[in-house]
């Protein structure tokens, strides 16, 4: 949910966009609860309304330009919308498990072109004699964490970015959340050449970071998509969340899944401008999702191109 364009527009108009208030999980674009209300609370809607009112009051007192709730779940989204927050729609790419027995079973549901493409890509990795290791939190050694952290950092350095997650952070995940933390490592001989980091819960695998020593043909697809899909099938996970960006994911069995954010803007002129922007963006996003679904990797006779698209989006 990038808002750099909004900030640049404010700078040109002489409006201070910063500071702003943000409710989100850092480095994790994952939908979840943002208004923390106990499940057994007798009137949760009233408490959500009170939390929102307090947030708006805090924003005004602090001189913040606005409040931004990123990836709120449905009850929070509804409450925020009722309190005047603007809803911004976007989408990610998710793979869904249709009770597949194995990877070949998944491939059978794809059209011929995409099935052959995936088989070719996997065969290229095997012919390079690259071995894959899948390790869970407690099984990951310090050497392996150090190696992956270097892979992770190299991805950011190649793109002129700054890696934020440190080696102690990754190590702490392995020790405190051993059942939820995963590394997919690729090895050539005795040397690790690439790695992918993921986390899981009872039904979803979240693929997040990847890195490599050098560019190896199709290895990114093998580690980040095919190995993770196989893992989901083997462990009966229902969803693989591959995050944002990358239309190439559609060719490999992923489909667009809607996500949203909610925004309150203090300046009335800025708010009206963003409202117009979101109206146009909403139409474009809806159309783009439909087009992606029509060109999915699945056999169209099964209706697989549209099965998992939860749209169109609600009207603004």
In short:
By secondary structure, the protein is an alpha+beta fold.
Write structural notes for this entry.
The protein is an alpha+beta fold and 316 residues long. Helices cover 41% and strands 21% of the residues. It has helices at residues 4-13, 44-62, 74-82, 103-108, 112-127, 142-158, 167-176, 219-234, 268-294; strands at residues 21-23, 66-70, 86-96, 131-136, 181-188, 191-200, 204-212, 239-241, 255-265. A nine-stranded mixed sheet has the order 1-2-9-3-8-7-6-5-4. The longest helix has 27 residues, at 268-294. It starts with a helix and ends in a 22-residue tail after the last helix.
Rg calculated over all Cα atoms:
22 Å
Major pleated sheet: 9 strands, mixed
Number of domains: 2
Compute the separation of the termini in Å. 17 Å
% residues in beta strands: 15-25%
Q: What's the CATH class of the largest domain, please?
A: Alpha Beta
Compressed to H and E, one letter per element, the order equals HEHEHEHHEHHEEEHEEH
Helix content: 40-55%
CATH architecture of the largest domain: 3-Layer(aba) Sandwich
